[in-house]
Here is the input.
Amino acid sequence: MTRKLRETPSQTAGPYVHIGLAPGAAGFDIYDQELGWDIAGANAKGERIRVEGRVMDGTGNPVKDVLLEVWQANADGQYAHPESGAVEDGFRGWGRVITDFETGAWGFDTIKPGPVAGRNGAVQAPHLNLWIVARGINLGLHTRMYFSDEVAANAADPVINLVEWESRRQTLIAKRAEEDGQVVYRFDIRLQGSDETIFFDI
Amino acid sequence: MRPPAEYYQRDRDRHPPALAPDYKTSVSRSPRFAPISLEQSVSEITGPVFGHQDVGLLDHDLIRNYAQTGDPVGERIIVHGRVLDENARPVPQTLVEIWQANAGGRYRHKKDTYLAPIDPNFGGCGRTITDESGYFFFRTVKPGAYPWRNRVNDWRPAHIHFSVFGASFSQRLITQLYFEGDPLIARCPIVQSLPDAVDALTAKLDMNATIPLDTIAYRFDIVLRGRRSTLFENRLEGN
Ligand SMILES: [Fe+3]
Here is the structure.
């Protein structure tokens, strides 16, 4: 098999991405069901968590028109895909979230994934795969979110260990907190600057 | 378990650079560090699976899916094509979502304040699932050009935004369709950040698919990343 065609070039999602992917947020009802708001479903095993953060631009200000997608495994480390294992009924593992237009804050509810198989028998620490698009972003940005309470697993993770600069590895790790009995992981993403988030060319 | 067959490395020269200074918003939103290259694992070669239960019967028909009192104003068009991968194989059962301005160049969005009027019969979004041959079909009205705040007199060429999934998260793509012959294409800083690839984003007039006395048609094929053949532990097979 060789490449016969070339990939279609990317273009920015622009400021009105919500119309297509989250019309309710754009201000109108059109579809019977919007996609991506229920990531884990009612039957999912594992710890129920909330993930919250903001996306900052190079000036340190929040980006207020960003859209994020999350792709994650279930508590057994399996993805809802034919090339992975079995998952619970109703577990899709995919979600879509937009920011508050005033504050730039975003957040979603899901379950904490389990460790995931890596290459050549390695194990990957629990993580969420994130994809970020917005006005001014010409090609969607891929990153991962790891969990601060998985210290040993994170230290052994083959992807975190690809990052030479130990200080920058911290940009991939969300901080766990408990707020009113709810587990919340805080994950801010910085598009640019000395503390720029690690992005991946996957 | 043997490792998964990977997707071809993304050809970054095919895409606009993160930093495209004439597109001013990209200046503060573009990462300055190079992205870290990752050998794909199950996290990258899987992605969400969609089916017909996810979309409604009228979702692909933007002439009807928000109509309140009649049809929307504008030139009636069909936009159709196939989603293929770099191996020229169809990408079936994948979700394609679009959004666009109305015929006057105005978006139905609380942040759009352009003086062209909202069309009460036009929402401006649609979605569909490709069939077994990767084929998709939308009916809509041709969007108008609109001004945007970049340089003082910048206008976006008429365009439709496209979001496509493919079979893996690594294939995820958002792009824009432009229309053959539009003189604004050559003046748009967003389009011109990829000068060699503009043709791939330009939908071609397709007279064979028009509906006489009713609707004109444009053809737009989309190519997502392709996949290597089966990969064994340390050896690629069939490449
Ligand atoms: Fe637009």
About this structure: Residues 232-239 of chain B have pLDDT under 50 and may be disordered. Chain B touches chain A through 92 residues (CB under 8 Å).
